[in-house]
Amino acid sequence: MTSEGIGKASGKIILMGEHSVVYGEPAIAFPFIGTQVIAKVHETDENFLSSAYHHGLLATVPVSLINIQQLTARLQQELQTSNFHLTIESTIPPERGMGSSAAVAVAITRAFFDWKKMILTKDSLLEYVDFAEQIAHGNPSGIDAAATSDTQPIFFKRDTERLSFPLNIDAYLLVADTGILGQTRAAVASVANLFENNPQETKQVMQKLGNLTKKAKQAIMDNQPELLGRLMTLAQAELKALTVSTPSLDHYIDLVLSQGALGAKLTGGGRGGCFLVLTKTREQAEKIAAILLEENIKNTWIQGLGVYQYV
């Protein structure tokens, strides 16, 4: 065991398929390279956590960090480590649908294995992250774990398919943070309640989202940004039907569409968090970002989606 272990992970963006991926439909996600988590671990007398949300003994973490407490306890037991001091540094805004909790779990797991100088397989990594995500969110699809631990975009179907493919579309993606905490657990529970009370209707919505995702993948492969934008906007309408959008998100999405965006939709769990805006040019994305910042959007990021832009 070395003196210190280090693990890293990126944020993630779900382009298409959030919520429906939980029910067997595909999703498209990719690592969001503009944000990351770095975890560091070294030996100490008592298990201790240093982070933006807790600085003290792991035994005294708030309820919101129980996933970290239990993940590290499992890693400590299974890897037979000494007591440790874990430091977490993150630029991923939490509870915004950008995979913060999964990225933290990825980085922690990698740090512990690095500390022990043990080989960490992709399957083992995803198992540990899924364990932490079940504690954090209740019924995770696995897409956050897959995207934050990968280096390329993925076409993901729960338990059956995980295909990496290049983003190759001449367009730009603007990610906008509403500044409102997303409510993933509540949104997932609400969708589950819809499924229980209106199974046929809700299943049809899920199938529509799945079909839109498949068409979006083809639009990316065929370099059809206008079609991709329309598909994103259609997906937003279905997500609204699932009650995971909000009046605030609806307002911002209507605003960017009125400014000429190719398409727009929420990303992640919804009920707040971030939304996506597809534009043809960087200049248009920058113009819309400026308008959104005047409308009290907290932060924006712009990422090119072409094969040579996605770096």
- In terms of structural class, how would the helical and strand content be classed? alpha+beta
In sequence order, what are the helices and strands, one letter per element?
EEEEHEHHHEEEHHHHEEHE
Q: What profile does the largest beta sheet have? A: 7 strands, mixed
What is the number of strand segments? 11
Helix content: 40-55%
Query: Which whole number gives the mean pLDDT?
Result: 91
**Low-pLDDT runs:** none
Would you write up a description of this structure?
The protein has 311 residues and is of the alpha+beta class. The strands form 2 sheets. Strands 1, 2, 3, 4, 5, 6 and 7 form a 7-stranded mixed sheet that branches. It has a 4-stranded antiparallel sheet with strand order 9-10-8-11. The model has no long low-confidence stretch (mean pLDDT 91). It is built from 9 helices and 11 strands. Helix 2 packs across helix 3 and helix 5 crosses helix 6.
Summarize this structure as a short list of keywords or feature phrases.
24% strand; 311 residues; alpha+beta; four-stranded antiparallel beta sheet; globular
